[in-house]
Design a protein that fits this description.
The chain is an alpha/beta fold. It contains 5 helices and 12 strands.
């Protein structure tokens, strides 16, 4: 089964957007590895999680897919060199590259959404549009190996779409 890297903010990741897809992926037999800039991350809804590997130590070769989680803290990652580099690396390697809520702005800033159909939290829609993505505002979108979602209300469908894309590619 696949090994999926989930990128969350150290402070202010969106709990539902993290926990729901993670649970769905694990139920489908996949391994989820959580990364952030600090050893423990705090959710915007009061949750917390131990981080499996620090962001600066991540080697993309060790994973089959990547998921960037939104929430107010994700704004710190939108222009982070490491997250932009990871997004570009996974996408260019043909690996599943996914993001939810504000986090699709990471994919846009990495230059991989140009001409792609994508969605995000409406607060980041202008970032996607400026970077020439075909922004839809839909709950979940898939365009080749990129999956994007609009926010916590789409977290379950986002997780299912990632699980299906992984099973379709194996």
């Amino acid at each position: 089964m696949a090994k999926i890297l989930m990128v969350i903010a150290a402070k202010g990741y969106q709990d539902i957007e993290y926990e729901t897809p993670k649970e769905i992926l694990e139920q489908n037999g996949h391994t989820v590895i959580t990364t952030s800039t600090k050893p423990e991350a705090k959710g915007s809804l009061g949750g917390s999680t131990k981080v499996d590997i620090l962001l600066k130590k991540v080697d993309p070769k060790d994973y089959d897919a990547i998921t960037f989680i939104g929430g107010p803290g994700s704004h710190k990652l939108i222009k982070n060199r490491k997250t932009l580099s990871l997004a570009k690396n996974f996408y260019e390697s043909g690996k599943l590259t996914t993001a939810i809520c504000a986090a699709p702005a990471i994919l846009a800033n990495a230059g991989i959404l140009e001409g792609k159909t994508a969605t995000c939290h409406e607060g980041q829609s202008q970032t996607l549009i400026k970077k020439e993505a075909n922004y839809t505002g839909s709950p979940v979108e898939q365009d080749s190996n990129i999956i994007t979602a609009s926010g916590p209300g789409a977290a379950r469908d986002f997780g299912k779409k990632i699980a299906k894309a992984i099973s379709d590619s194996t």
